[in-house]
Amino acid sequence: xxxxxxxxxxxxxxxxxxxxxxxxxxxxxxxxxxxxxxxxxxxxxxxxxxxxxxxxxxxxxxxxxxxxxxxxxxxxxxxxxxxxxxxxxxxxxxxxxxxxxxxxxxxxxxxxxxxxxxxxxxxxxxxxxxxxxxxxxxxxxxxxxxxxxxxxxxxxxxxxxxxxxxxxxxxxxxxxxxxxxxx
Length: 183
Known about the structure:
By secondary structure, this protein is mainly α. 78% of the residues lie in helices and 0% in strands. The chain starts with a helix and ends with a helix.
């Protein structure tokens, strides 16, 4: 159940950014969470940036986000069935063409090159949102192993997000998850 919520949340954030559309209360809630993470100005700027991307660049940005998620499911050294299903669900909900989606699903078992992913995540606000999305994946089973935390810290460093900001982003997500469980 928690993995499905994570997949839906990650995919909704990508959908909101790429289309600018808020359809339904779940999308509105996801947009509010993204706003709490980034702030309204950065979120608006990121939406405009996504909206101006040509189709190939938009597809590549979405693929890079998903590949960052794939990198996180490799953090503990083994991709579990639940993690594979999580990534498959994210791909399914990401509104990619069939060929791009199939290519990503085929690469779930291959640990991606983090440097190559980071090079394609060029917008600073997208980098922060990716860090939060991947933290959702790391924490989705309720247990953060040292290797997962270390991999997430490495991702933050490669994304040029300092340790203090990474900690704040993790705290924002933790607080959002706690609040959503009490609603």
